[in-house]
Amino acid sequence: SLLAAPGLRGRLALALHVAGVNAALLLIYSRPLYKIAVRACFLGFAFGCGLLLSTGRSAWRHFGWYMCSLSLFHYSEYLVTAINNPRSLSLDSFLLNHSFEYNLAALSSWVEFTLEKLFFPELKQITWLSTVGLLMVIFGDCLRKAAMLTAGSNFNHIVQNEKSDTHTLVTSGVYGWFRHPSYVGWFYWSIGTQVLLCNPICVVGYALASWRFFRERIEEEEITLIHFFGEEYLEYKRKVPSGLPFIKGVKLEL
Fold it and tell me: Which of 32, 61, 81, 142 has its CA 20 to 30 A from that of 177?
């Protein structure tokens, strides 16, 4: 109730709450674990704020859906990596510092939402469209996490240039549907966040930028996979689509 209080009282309570949690984490955890804990707490706090916005009658309700989706995505990236491949686990597994372009895209979407809400408020109240975006977000994130869990220790956030002893070609489960299900999931998740926010400019921008990024990423990764598995991967490539529109992957034959 204090955090929801209006004006200076609410802002002061929020600042004290954040400072108190941070101090408690510093006392409880050593430096390496503190870095993990403070990020997890930040994401949990963002999820809670999003939940409050989502369940109220605020005009920012759809932005609350977005906050929940974004914070859950980043937290679950770390969690599933910890379960699947703890040897590759690091602070980067949260993907909070994925790239400058990723952070710029997120900031752009917040700016567009705020400006359009100020000047075209009716554009941000299209509930059916936001619901479609939320369904895209849920589908994309579930597909990505299913891909990570199916791949197990073979999954890594960084494209591997050297084949380890445990590295195998995964073709079962969601990998029987698409060659790159984690990228397919992330692609539709990212676009879905902008449909959810009813951001027409960022919908187009995210679609083009994501498509270009994954086209280059898939080509880079498939060169490595062909090097690792040779004809076995080429046969898999012939049978299973990449899953992303108009992306066929690297054009290379042995």
Answer: 81
